[in-house]
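Revision sheet: structure tokens.
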Amino acid sequence: MITGASAGIGVEFARQLAERGYNVTLAARRIERLTELAAELERDHNVRAIPVACDVTDPQQRRELLESIDARGDVIDILVNNAGIGTDGPFWERSTDEQLAQIDINVLALTALTHMALPGMIERGHGAVLNVASTAAFQPMPRQAVYAATKAYVTSFSQALSTELSDTGVSITVLCPGPTRTEFFGDRQAALEDSTPGFTWQSAEDCARAGLDGMFKRKRIVVPKALNKVGALSAKHTPTGVTLQMLDRFWPVGK
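Predicted:
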């Protein structure tokens, strides 16, 4: 089951899992896109692809999503928690609803779906969860304060669970991509790519492949691209004040 499957990395997760022969449940709010993707996957890969319109922040819709899988007689062998949103700009200039929405989808929905899927995986003795975080998880981010904090949660939560589950046959992997060419930044995507070095960006296809490869190898954490690995390591050893000054000056998001 893949959340946020209607665009960007979520589409690539779906395509690449279908290439490996997995039937997929595609969950997102935009049913038209999901229906088109499901048809593509069934045509090109001879798998079963089920589109489900679902707002994963709604507890009732989350329950109905999992109940629909049970009703088909299917089980979740792989859960990809890809749905996520972010805002940019000074914290106080965004509405309270916008800021809390990030917590609802990036933290609450991901935690709930993981909790709902794990008992069945543990009972069967196998399964995998792939949670999508970000390199924003490794340091506070001016102008993306709430977003970075939610991704820090996802990274910490996932790594802790990987240890709890070490003897169950179930694995947890957290994917921490850097800048990725998707719809995440909306109309500002092209401008951001123009204002930052091209080598810092990656494609959604490469990002998804790195995450899935790491998941199948049962890795605890995956940081695609050598440059991002260096950045994550540097964040651990650089004084926070210095990191914040550098980000405030050189990371253009929200300016």
